[in-house]
Amino acid sequence: MRRRAFLVGSLLLAACQKAEERCKNCGMKIDPKSAWTAKLIAPDGTVVPFDTPRCAFTSWRSGKTQAKELHVQEYYDRAWRDAVEVRFVLGGDVLGPMGPDLVPVDGPRAAKFVQDHAADRALPVDQITMDVLGSIK
């Protein structure tokens, strides 16, 4: 009897726990408090979550995920922004949760960020190609 009660209790507990959200590109658990998360908005309005801008771009540019918009968190104020509103900084001393990444920075602040963090360059969303993603090391 105790064993049955234990099994039922365990199953109920497991059913009540919220499933962890995972990056649709690499499978990494997405920390809801992370400032690096990104999301693609599919043509039907579905939100597709990613753990970093790099993963979101990789999925989008490779054709794995169709999207009409990319939303990222701006580096300084952590506000969600449409990717067309920011510049993506490559290189430098700011690393994402999985190492080198694309750092979303508000356009007017991008040049100063590049200088302050010894970064390579800042690019608009339309210039982030698979070749650019492949160069991130």
Which range does the strand content fall in?
15-25%
Shape: globular
**Helix-strand string:** HEEHEEEEHEH
Alpha carbon gap, first and last residue = 57 Å
- Cα gyration radius (Å): 18 Å
Assign the structural class, choosing from mainly alpha, mainly beta, alpha/beta, alpha+beta, or little secondary structure.
alpha+beta
- Unreliable segments of 5+ consecutive residues: none
Binned, the helix content reads 25-40%
Average pLDDT confidence is 91
- Count of spatially separate domains: 1
Order of the strands making up the biggest sheet: 2-1-3-4
DSSP E strands, number: 7
Number of contiguous helices: 4
The major pleated sheet works out as: 4 strands, antiparallel
Q: How would you explain this protein's 3D organization?
A:
The longest helix is centred in the first third of the chain and has 15 residues, at 2-16. The chain has one domain. The strands form two sheets. It has a four-stranded antiparallel β-sheet. The protein has a three-stranded antiparallel β-sheet with strand order 6-5-7, with helices on one face. Helix content is 29%, strand content 20%. The protein has four helices and seven strands. Strand 1 (38-41) and strand 2 form a beta hairpin. It is of the alpha+beta class. The mean pLDDT is 91.
